Amino acid sequence: MKGGKALLLYFSGTGHTKALVEVLKRRLENELDFSVLLHSIEDKGPDPDLGQFDLVVFSYPIHAFNMPLNYERYLRKLNLKKGKAYAILKQSGEPHFLNDASSRTLLRRIRKSGKPFYGEWHLLMPYNIHFRYPDALVKRLLSGDRMLLDAFLKRLERGVLVPAKENVLLSPIGWLFRIERLAGPLAAPGFEADEKKCISCLRCVRSCPRGNIRQEEGRIRFGRDCLLCMRCAFHCPTDAIRMGLFDRWKVNGPYPLAKIEGSSPEEDERFLQEHCWFLSLFPKWERYAETARETAFSGTISKE
User: Is residue 66 a contact partner of residue 178, using CB atoms and an 8 Å limit?
Assistant: First the structure.
């Protein structure tokens, strides 16, 4: 497929998914002559008509091996039989195979629609919860993401389709971890803004995707409609948000992705020692990204 209209339909918590779809938009326009509409589910106005697009790419961050609840609810409203072709671009902070459970219902709906499917692509971005990634690891992730986008665009250009088939063995795991969706509503009323640090910029109030944060009598207050997307804490300019039980997992401050990608950061030896098991997951994903790119450009794959 080359040329036509594409819709990149996404939700981004702290901005990482948005960064990825912005890169994909530029590449679709510059390399495959697409006209691309970038649409967040938070955008005002009417929902886009899937029938107007030659390609629809669904993109979201993975929350505890599931897609975010607000994104799942948004997709329920859509008639996938109207679209002409689909792809999935999801992102998480680690390459664990259980993340494949996140797309199970969407894959099922795409398969039932009978429309062409250009694959499910699992890209990685640094954590916005648990702990902060050092620049050297972030650069590795961005390199792997670039190779996977290379592979996706080449397969799209050549019209190489894949079956939209979910891994049924992972479905129970996905359902089990949906319990994480209770954590936000239960914990968020205990969140607070440190009065000594808060500068009342109201960035958290304006940016919350659920409208769950408000200012009352000069103080920041949190309700129960929380996705745990971490946007408020991650982007607080003074690191004033206190998240109760989740405070020890909080990551504050965006990663300078463009700067990191163009630099040559040194390895953080302490991080390597403290997270050696966790880091052992990444080489397999990096080999997968390299193989996906090599295969897409080798001419050995054929249209299905």
Answer: yes
Q: Which CATH code of 3.40.50.2300, 3.40.50.360, 3.50.40.10, 2.40.30.20 fits the domain covering 4-176+280-298? A: 3.40.50.360
Q: What Rg value do the Cα atoms of the chain yield, rounded?
A: 20
Residue 266 tokens read as 């040194």
Q: With cut-offs at 50, 70 and 90, classify the pLDDT of residue 2.
A: confident
CATH of 187-245, one of 3.60.10.10, 3.30.70.20, 3.50.50.60, 1.10.10.60: 3.30.70.20
Asked if pLDDT for residue 304 goes beyond 50, the answer is: no
User: What's the pTM value of the predicted model, to 2 decimals?
Assistant: 0.95
Please give the Cα distance from 251 to 27 (Å, whole number).
30
Q: What is the DSSP letter of 63?
A: B
